Amino acid sequence: MMKTKQSRILIHGAKTEHLIFAVVISCLNYYCVAQRCSRDIRNQVAYEGRPASFLRIENGLPIMWKVAPSDLLIDPERSITDDDDDKIVNPEFVKTYKVDSKRLTILKSTVARQRSMPYATAGLYTLNYLDPNCTTGAGLIVIRDDPECTCDRRNARVSCSVDYAAYKEQRIEPIMTWKDDNGVTLRSKQPTPSSLDVNNPGLQRSVSEFPIAAATDVRNYTCQLTFSTPSPRQPKYISRNAPSFTASCSVKNCRLRIPQTTKESVTRSRPTTSARRLRTTKTTRKATTTCKT
Description:
With 293 residues, the chain is α+β, with helices and mostly antiparallel strands. Helix content is 23%, strand content 30%. The protein has helices spanning 2-38, 260-269, 273-292, and strands spanning 44-47, 52-55, 62-69, 78-79, 97-99, 103-106, 123-129, 136-143, 148-152, 157-165, 174-179, 185-189, 194-195, 203-211, 221-227, 247-251. The strands form 3 sheets. Strands 1, 3, 4, 7, 8, 9, 10, 13 and 14 form a 9-stranded mixed β-sheet that branches. A hairpin with a 5-residue loop joins strand 11 (174-179) and strand 12. The chain is elongated, with a radius of gyration of 34 Å. The chain starts with a helix and ends with a helix. The model is unreliable at 7-12, 19-36, 262-269 and 287-293 (pLDDT under 50).
């Protein structure tokens, strides 16, 4: 009877150890996958005409780079690399991308297709792995140039604008922050962008305006450009970071211009020298006529 009990205990212990071992292995696998997938490629901003790159995750077994260009309306996803080898670029993209074991390089950042590039390089990039649960993705936003600032004294405002291209569904948009001479924030706003080309849904312009007042001592204004985090409705494998990017423009000696109507009213209220002489002459003539009578 004792041997039977001991056997049952040993069998039960073996099953427990096996279960614990299985749980540990499962946890380790999950941890490894989580670690591998957490090192995703990051959302970033690049200037038009300049190169950009996405660092590749070193762990795991990547099989393909893909892109959803910002200028495609329907079925935008395209395979950058060969189905069987993530380091071989497909023929239509050989002048657009370069791939090695460490990164995907965009040879030239663009907001629209060009002769040597079939699509805009602005868009949503994904790196697919052999493990289907380990796909990772991020957006490339391409701006045409630094933001442009203008001073409109007649309408009492300063404005800041930037043209850029991005994968529209990702909704990473400009944030424009106005500051005074001392760096004090006057306003921070995420303007609603407007489309620049009906055939290129990702090409947009954002404009921020700030009013200037006659009574204020502020003469110089700076507009700082940053970008927002993507829409929370994106799939989990898409990176959630706000691009690490800052650019700015400034306007100097921008003060409210006195309206033309005010100047005219001041002029009318003060007769000119010629008008005063004419009045004096008329008065003298009238007095002379009265004396003769």
